[in-house]
Amino acid sequence: MQQAVRIRLLECGVCLDEIQEPRALDCLHSFCLRCLRGLPGADQARLSCPHCRRVTRKQPGELEKDFRIEQVNELYCLTWLVTA
């Protein structure tokens, strides 16, 4: 069960893999930087969130890194080490 929760929290909604180089949109949904670069409008600074469709008026490279994703992963790893 814990593994399923971890996977869901760290999963990119575009590629469905673990998020790589997580970037947060204005709506606070996070996706891989690579995936965001592949979205329509990415080169025109008009990103539509794949989850909620809210528009972020930035190019993918201008988005802030989502440190929450990294923190969740670190906490999970620490918890797993303590309980193992």
UniProtKB/TrEMBL annotation:
Domain of life, per lineage: Eukaryota
What keywords tag this UniProt record? Answer: Metal-binding, Zinc, Zinc-finger
Q: Which InterPro entries match?
A: TRIM45/56/19-like, Znf-RING_euk, Znf_RING, Znf_RING/FYVE/PHD, Znf_RING_CS
Stretches assigned to the RING-type domain: 12-53
Gene Ontology MF terms: zinc ion binding
Instruction: Show the Gene3D superfamilies listed in the entry.
Output: Zinc/RING finger domain, C3HC4 (zinc finger) (3.30.40.10)
Q: What PROSITE patterns has UniProt attached to this entry? A: ZF_RING_1 (PS00518), ZF_RING_2 (PS50089)
Q: What is this protein called?
A: RING-type domain-containing protein
Specify the species: Macrostomum lignano
